[in-house]
Design brief:
Elements lengths: L2 H28 L9 H29 L4 H23 L5 H31 L1
Helix pairs in contact: 1-2, 1-3, 2-3, 2-4, 3-4
Length: 132
């Protein structure tokens, strides 16, 4: 069972729902049913939501692979934490009244570091399993 992956998936799902509600609320406020209606705030909310939806599945798949391959739980916890922190920072940057560029950049750095570390650890673990 992928217990740690399940915890991270649950946390990230709550953030995803928050980003979804942010888009819905902005659509209602601006009476825009499709697209962004030329509204910069709505465009940013849509892209923040989309960005989240684009990165999270890959991170969770890589995290689940580590856990399924019995990588020590502290490594899974650490790498999942780096990736999740990145997604949380990035989402928070767009949920503020004025988008926070510094937090956005920090979020993408943590996200990409997390993804690279997850991918590299999976490859290394598989190589070790093949050799042994």
């Amino acid at each position: 069972m992928l217990k740690l992956t399940a915890i991270y998936a649950a946390i990230l799902t709550f953030v995803y729902v928050k980003l979804t509600l942010n888009v819905i609320n902005l659509r209602r406020q601006n009476e825009v049913s499709l697209g962004d209606g030329g509204r910069e705030d709505l465009q940013q909310a849509i892209r923040s939501h989309g960005n989240f939806a684009e990165y999270v599945p890959l991170g969770l798949i890589l995290l689940g692979c580590l856990e399924a391959n019995h990588i020590h739980w502290t490594i899974v916890l650490l790498l999942g934490g780096v990736f999740t922190a990145g997604r949380l920072f990035y989402a928070k940057a767009f949920l503020e009244a004025t988008p926070n560029t510094e937090l956005r950049v920090k979020g993408m750095k943590f996200t990409l570091w997390g993804l690279q570390a997850l991918a590299a650890t999976n490859v290394i673990a598989l190589i070790i399993q093949i050799i042994l």
